[in-house]
Specification:
binds zinc ion; 13-stranded mixed sheet; mainly beta; binds (S)-N-(3-indol-1-yl-2-methyl-propyl)-4-sulfamoyl-benzamide; 15 strands; 260 residues; two-stranded parallel sheet
Amino acid sequence: GHHWGYGKEDGPSAWHRQYPVAKGNRQSPIDIIPNEARRDSTLGPIFLKYDQCRSLNIANNGHSVVVEFDDSDDRSVVLGGPLDNPYRLKQFHFHWGGKGCEGSEHTVAGVGYASELHVVHWNAVKYKTYNDAAAAPDGLAVLGIFLELGDDHRWLHMITDALYMVKFKGSATDFKGFNPKCLLPSSLHYWTYLGSLTTPPLHESVTWIVLKEPIVVSEKQLGMFRMLQFNGEEEDQRMRMENNFRPPQNLKERIVRSSN
Ligand SMILES: C[C@@H](CNC(=O)c1ccc(S(N)(=O)=O)cc1)Cn1ccc2ccccc21
Ligand SMILES: [Zn+2]
């Protein structure tokens, strides 16, 4: 059917027609205002157990570039912080802007970053499948990591070198041996709040854990993401994949908590 996108006609302002939860009470992303976040001493550190992770493939799903992991057991999980149990690593993907424009989804005191990495985990303790978890209020835990422009990131080339293989929507290629630990900043201090998927179906199923410290990537590296296309190879309309971010949504009755 008529699919959602990031254009004028099918973009974030139109999603509510097919996905009415777009106007719900716990939508993401949001603008995080550090001075209004509640410092919560009961919030412990998060732990990322990724040493046994097994990346499988890298793919262009027509909205972003996604690296998927083997989630058939609890080999790689996020735990601690606001989470009641371990959440299993499923995939990570990015959101970015156009040349020189902002591209992150969350903003901090009204300021956006060039890009944002989302590391998606699901509650396999309570739910049988990822899709069940993705529709449940405590089903997903997504780690958000800001990317700011500066020097080359020493490991991001492992991803940008593979992008030419997944230029078009629907393309995928093997991508083994990649550990997302190499994309983390030095500090795991975070803000956390209850929110949603930032793309349709916009399920209100995400415990967001947004790291305060960005990682640094170069404009050249980020520019490589813009070689990707929203369209499939056979489609005659070529659309550069960029500005694939949803703007901040209403906080409604939520508070954002801050780790120490
Ligand atoms: C959960 C969707 C697939 N989407 C996601 O898994 C997902 C994960 C993370 C984010 S983000 N950007 O917030 O980190 C966004 C989407 C499948 N699916 C299941 C039912 C369904 C109905 C319509 C369309 C897709 C559907
Ligand atoms: Zn995302």
